[in-house]
Design brief:
The chain has 218 residues and is mainly α.
């Protein structure tokens, strides 16, 4: 999978940012990021690209957030045949979880906008831990969103034991705050969303089996 986050993906990222930010140094960014890329595993590649992007994007995250929200406009336009793996969007989305953690309002708006490019289920977990009340207030709205990707982000992003993702220990101990969200999504018209609800319930079963039985009985 790591090869999907290689030179071609890097070129696409660089080109997209150059289209939305006239100050973005496309060639310099690519040259810096490609130097060590082939030596790294998948998640290491994600972090390298994030750190390199930070060298070329505005230091003010509010300005960077505005740029990130513009990405969908050019992301698919510059890849009409969808030759670029969705993995290319992973570091772009996770950028917010590294450098935007102090700005939950702007960052969650970014994640909501970009999640259809590559699920923001990994990035959003840092905000759930740091800003749980604000996140939950947004999730109660997102479960009604028109986009299946946004609705799924609620279920998948709050999974206590998401594979590859940061464990959400408060939800491992007590997942009850998420049950109303799952209840609202369990009959979602999208199978994509319903499967996420099932996976979330499976996570709950590992630590709170009695609660899961109660949910299923109801």
């Amino acid at each position: 999978m790591k090869t999907q986050l290689g030179a071609t993906a890097l070129e696409h990222i660089a080109l997209c940012f150059s289209q939305i930010d006239s100050n973005f140094k496309q060639q310099e960014f690519y040259a810096q990021a490609i130097l060590e890329l082939d030596k790294l595993e998948l998640k290491q590649r994600v972090m390298l690209i994030i750190e390199t992007l930070h060298d070329y994007l505005p230091a003010d995250f509010i300005k960077t957030a505005d740029l990130l929200k513009q990405l969908p406009r050019v992301w698919q336009q510059l890849d009409p045949e969808q030759k670029i793996s969705s993995f290319a969007a992973w570091p772009v989305i996770d950028y917010a979880s590294i450098y935007g953690l102090a700005h939950p309002q702007q960052s969650l708006a970014v994640l909501k906008t970009l999640t259809h490019l590559f699920s923001a289920e990994f990035a959003i977990r840092a905000f759930i831990i740091k800003h749980p009340d604000y996140c939950h207030s947004q999730f109660t709205q997102w479960i009604k969103d028109d986009s299946e990707h946004v609705r799924r982000l609620v279920s998948e992003g709050t999974r206590p034991r998401l594979p590859w993702g940061l464990q959400l220990k408060p939800f491992i101990k007590d997942p009850s705050v998420n049950i109303p969200l799952l209840s609202a999504l369990k009959d979602d018209p999208s199978l994509y969303v319903r499967r996420s609800v099932a996976n979330h319930l499976n996570d709950i079963s590992k630590d709170n089996p009695a609660l899961l039985v109660d949910i299923c009985q109801r």
